[in-house]
Design a protein that fits this description.
Blueprint: E1 2-3, E2 16-28, H1 31-43, H2 48-72, E3 76-87, E4 93-104
Parallel strand pairs: 1-3
Antiparallel strand pairs: 2-4, 3-4
Pfam family, one: YbjQ_1
Protein name: UPF0145 protein ABVV53_01950
Organism: Novosphingobium kalidii
C-alpha cells in the first residue's frame, strides 16, 4: 500500500477514487511517564517514553487508515494528513488521527 501526503503518485495515474479514509488512535498518558517526562523537561533533553508512545499511536492510526482503504479496493492513499491533539479533562490523553483519499493506481 502506497501512502503519501502528495495528491498524486508520480508515474502512477489514479484509475479510481474510493473516497476519504481515516484512522484514529487515542492513548492515555501514564502517571509515571508524566513524572519522568517532567524531569526530562526540567533538565533538558528528549522524552523517550513520550516519543515511543507517539510513534506507536501514529503507526497504528496509519495502519487503520490503510486497512480501511484496502477494504474499499484501494492500493494507495493520497493526500494524507496527520493530526495530533491532547484531549481529556486534564489533557491526559493523546489523539493521533490521519485521513486521506483511498485510490486505485
Amino acid at each position: 500500500m502506497i501512502v503519501t501526503t502528495t495528491p498524486t503518485v508520480e508515474g502512477r495515474p489514479v484509475r479510481e477514487y474510493f473516497g476519504i479514509v481515516t484512522g484514529e488512535v487515542i492513548v492515555g498518558a501514564n502517571v509515571f511517564r508524566d513524572l519522568f517526562a517532567s524531569i526530562t523537561d526540567i533538565v533538558g533533553g528528549r522524552s523517550g517514553k513520550y516519543e515511543q508512545v507517539l510513534q506507536r499511536a501514529r503507526k497504528e492510526a496509519l495502519e487503520e487508515m490503510e486497512s480501511e482503504a484496502a477494504k474499499l479496493g484501494g492500493n494507495a492513499v493520497v493526500g494524507v494528513d496527520i493530526d495530533y491533539e491532547v484531549i481529556g479533562q486534564s489533557g491526559s490523553m493523546l489523539m493521533v488521527s490521519c485521513s486521506g483519499t483511498a485510490v486505485l493506481l
